[in-house]
Amino acid sequence: MNEFGFTGPLKEEMSAFIRLKRCVGNKYEAEVGVLKRFDRYLTRNYPAITGLPKESVTSWCTKQPHETPANRSSRASAIRQFAKYLDSIGQTAYVLPEHSYPSGCQYVPHIYTHNELVRFFAQTEKCHFCSQCPWRHLVMPIFFRLLLECGLRCSEARLLVVGDVDLEKGCLSQRTVTVGW
Q: Which secondary structure element, helix H or strand E, spans residue 180, and what is its range?
């Protein structure tokens, strides 16, 4: 076994590929999970391969029942990058053509009108006390205003704690987030 736990026929190459990606400044964390699953797949289905044959790549990239187009595209992209690496070190590898698996429709954000925002915030003010969530009626109006006024992502607002709020300086601080108002 190696440092990343790969056991398949391309275990050394996968480890070297991840080390290279990280050496050039990529975090390369989620992709390691994809490569681990691909490694298990190769071990089960192609235990004696050398290089990366087309069949092993295309069969791995077959859409799974639970998978969205974006997930499939992401999974295929990681394998495409690995195949390009194999090719660059002189191994025979099938490299998926770019955009083989499009990620589907792109999200188009909705820009709210002033009237829509007024109506939205009027509804958040109607949030009432509930014994199962005793602070909800106080938190929800502020939560949505933080999203709008500070440009926070939902997860950033959700993960805020009291210590992240500096009322004197008028700013929020959270590990990697600093927003002034």
A: strand 177-180
